[in-house]
Amino acid sequence: MGFDAASKGGNNNDYPNFTLENGKTWKSSYKILAYGKSDVVTIKIHGDTTIDLSQLEFYFGSEKLDPILTEKGISINIIRPKVSNDLLVFHNGKIIGQLKTMVYSEKKKDLIIVPLISQKLDFMDIRKKIISVYEKANIDLNISIGQRFSSKVFNSKTIFSSPDSLQNRYSGQMRLLRDLYFKENPNVNKNAFYLFVVPGFSNNSTFGFMVPDKAIGFVPFQSNQKKLGIQLARTLATGMGGLNSQWIRDANLISKNLLDTTYGTELTHFQITELQREMSTYSRFDAYENIKTGNGTIAYYFWEEDADGNIFIDGKSLVNVPRQPFKKNFLAYRFDVQYSLMRPLFRFGKYYISLVNFGFVTLILLLVYWFRKRMLKIWENRNWRNIYRRSLYWLSLILAFILIYSSFSWGNDILDQFKKVSGPIPSLKNLTYRDARHVLFNDPEIRKQGEANLCSEILIRKNGAWEVKKRSQVLYFELQERDTSEVPLLRLVSTSDSLILEQDSIRTFARTHYVVYTRKDSKGKCLSQEVYTYDGKIVSDLKKQVNVPKRILVFVNGYRPTSTGQTVGEGFKGIQAKGLEFPNSTNYIYNFDRYDYWQPWGEINLQFQNRLNPSITFYADGHFSVSTSDYQSLLNFTRISQLYPLRCSNPKKHVCSTVKNDQITRFFLPTTKTEKLLKMSPNKTGFEYRKKKGKIAGMNLLQEINPYPNQSENDTLFIVAHSMGYAYALGMIEVLRDKINFGGFYIIAPENAKSGKVNTNEWREIWQYGSRFNLPNSDAPCLQDGVAPQSGALGLPFAFRVFFPENLYEKKGFFDSHFIGYYDWILKLNEGQPGYMKQR
Is-contact 249 111, C-beta < 8 A? Predict the structure, then answer.
């Protein structure tokens, strides 16, 4: 099993000191032990070799061990260990040696290697090298090599572009290869790691790539099979343990660590701890890519028409004639700007920049220059003091910056006056369908704007030119048969927000997108009507549908840290160190834990599912920037989280009531009360923004649960919302009200709960769970939820609030009290206790 000693090439801060009998300090080494399996430790005497061995005593924790003298030194048998203990060596009652042990159960994991290269892989050499690394972490890897994969796009000569420097997302090539492989191999092991051996990367220094905590990796081929095995092991460590570039040291240091050198194989104890983590979900998607779903408030259609408005069929299947590539949550607006000065040149963030912006910036800078020269003359004539001169100078610069920044927003407001939802799009002229689809969302003259109401955007090609039309969610097509053998005529005749079928006497509001085809004979007589969903599934026998009541469970996650870690504290280290955040939610609904927010933590989502027993489970993403929280900025959050005290070691003697004051008042108030750091003003604007976006998700959920019209009215909704997900869930609830029955609402550690209101009368069961803060008998400051300082949801009586149990002291703290993985205590409450979630 693995052995980890402090060395010159390692980070010695990771190894604790112990003091010898002569007063000198020494670094403790680490030994990995397998749970329940005996192991042998060999001990060597350094320094004084005349020591009387009979005076040595050996302890494993409190258990005294008998040494065995061998030619190599002293051996100690550790019999079937079950807990981690220190192995201590005493001489005359004083410690002279210490070995820290870490006991881990054996983990069985599957690794599948998929070659793209034509060269044959030496399975035995590769397997031997990978196993030699992971057996040190007590991981039993079942390794297999799959069949060589190739396609029209990928072959044995395909060179892959190097991944981005942040190492947090797959490239387009990688995503395409992944999707093609799993599409062609739908029955492969879903709970395995996959490493694709590719011909090479454009950057020769790329020795492998895998997004941390994901199950898909890519390694370039090399002829030395043993070195290839090490590189496969190294890349796998990134996915399995989240080991990333923070582990990589200076290449000049003498180190044999797997992550320090190109071909090292050693692991440190903390790396082994990461590799030993339970991986309950094997995710193939990074957090930045858009996963295609069946929902989206705006449905996009593309087709080509002749001069008379007839749609070209070209022998295709009827449902494939209007191309229906995707739904989005935004409308594509075009700017019909006649003046070249105002025409947008490019987009900077959310702002469109035109020559007017450049002109305005130039004017402001000239005015500042003129103002500065003018003021210099006045200062010289009146002999003003330097402090006034400098103050006025800086004031002018600040005013100039505000005006320039504001001009971006003014420019957008002016462009909005030229906004056209329908009409020709000159920038798409003469483009094919595929190219037009791509350019549509990259043209600076086309603006994307979020939309919570259902509608359709139709792009029609006529004589090489494209035009866009905004229409309602149900499209009605007429297919006119002709007497001759000519192709029938197909045309769009109307759109509506309702599904109307004359033959079946159906008229109902549509909560998703439909396409209706009315077939007529050559004389205009209606033959039949067919209804299709956006993804091409036929909706038949509407009147005969049996609407079985269903229980719908929705998980709404909160903020997603950019770093991976076993706890929310470890996850937030990424934004503390780099100030990085994932983009805001795209407001889609998924039928799986898309962002691995719930399942990795003891499958807590499945625990809730077992209690609520839903018919269908969905996941909504309530992630938004820290700027929408009460902290209002990453800088403020980072400052407070680093200043905040850790959990006190003695639960009966707290020393966390005050902290060092880092504000300007520190010169006369060196300390401040800890709780003052958490008493922030509610960010109502940010809360309302998240709630507004939640309405889009609510519309998308309605689409998912209403493939047939009005199917959700006898269903019952249950929501489990965490952190920022509370505001998001409230937005969803506003849309879903009166369209589904409300069963249970479970609010866990809500962020800024005081800015949102619930109606307890519309829920059969509603509870809020979190820390006891700013209340009588509150927990000590060091135990508070610092990520989302807790307050009661408006409208919720105090009796419906449940607080973190006192006996879970080790699971409380600034980050820990917020960590969703520690809220499994909710499911351990007994019937009759406040917060008990009824078994369904």
Answer: no
